[in-house]
């Protein structure tokens, strides 16, 4: 995996002074997180340009979102973010020599819960999320899994009986040298029940029958 970050010696979040950290986190919150527009690589590049502290703050950061049309309805929870499970896992290094090649036998370990927030627009509900990758050497794997939580949904009267699912379901393992990673948004998809045949869904589905 080639990366402009590979082998670079650069400051990280913990290297920023307390005053600068508070200032840049406040800026990040107001200029990026509070806005309904999805975070994109271009927006992140523009935000960090000209500031070493901002570059350090977002080193190894991972961004993404979950969206669906407001006409569908929403989770029957205090916050729409409670309708989903966003889990970041990291695989520590426990490599063994298997004769000509090595393999990491360490299990994945759940990391601190990602930050999540309501990033809805006038037409779509959207949950944004953000976390830091567990390794910036491009060796040990991170894993992101997003699921529908086991909660009831308040669906529109126009939505027929069926199931909800996420597209895509989770993501494969990934590694990073410290570059800022932005995953495409997950989408909540409604799948009506078939009238004349049973449904055999691929992956976990959420029953949303009224």
Structure description:
The protein has 210 residues and is α+β, with helices and mostly antiparallel strands. The chain folds into two domains: 11-59, no CATH class; 65-207, no CATH class. The protein is 14% helix and 32% strand. It has three helices and 14 strands. The strands form four sheets. Strands 1, 7, 8, 11, 12, 13 and 14 form a seven-stranded mixed sheet that branches. The chain has a three-stranded antiparallel sheet with strand order 6-3-9, with no helix packed on it. A hairpin with a 5-residue loop joins strand 7 (115-118) and strand 8. The protein starts with 17 loop residues before the first helix and ends with a strand. 25% of the residues are buried. The model has no long low-confidence stretch (mean pLDDT 84).
Q: Structural class, judged by helices and strands?
A: alpha+beta
What is the arithmetic mean of pLDDT? Answer: 84
Radius of gyration: 20 Å
Number of helices: 3
List keywords for this structure.
alpha+beta, flat, seven-stranded mixed β-sheet, 210 residues
Describe the structure concisely for a colleague.
With 210 residues, the protein is of the alpha+beta class.
């Amino acid at each position: 995996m080639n990366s402009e970050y590979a082998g670079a010696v650069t400051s990280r979040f913990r290297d920023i002074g307390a005053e600068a950290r508070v200032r840049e986190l406040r800026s990040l919150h107001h200029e990026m997180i509070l806005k309904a527009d999805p975070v994109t690589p271009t927006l992140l590049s523009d935000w960090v340009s000209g500031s070493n502290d901002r570059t350090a703050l977002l080193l190894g950061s991972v961004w993404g979102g979950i969206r669906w049309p407001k006409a569908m309805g929403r989770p029957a929870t205090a916050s729409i973010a409670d309708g989903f499970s966003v889990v970041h896992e990291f695989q520590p290094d426990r490599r063994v020599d298997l004769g000509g090649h090595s393999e990491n036998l360490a299990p994945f370990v759940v990391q601190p819960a990602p930050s999540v927030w309501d990033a809805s627009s006038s037409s779509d509900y959207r949950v944004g999320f953000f976390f830091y990758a567990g390794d910036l050497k491009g060796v040990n794997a991170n894993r992101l899994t997003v699921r529908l939580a086991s909660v009831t949904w308040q669906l529109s009267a126009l939505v027929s009986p069926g199931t909800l699912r996420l597209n895509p379901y989770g993501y494969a393992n990934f590694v990073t040298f410290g570059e800022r990673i932005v995953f495409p948004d997950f989408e909540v998809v409604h799948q009506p029940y078939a009238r004349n045949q049973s449904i055999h869904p691929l992956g976990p589905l959420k029953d949303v029958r009224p």
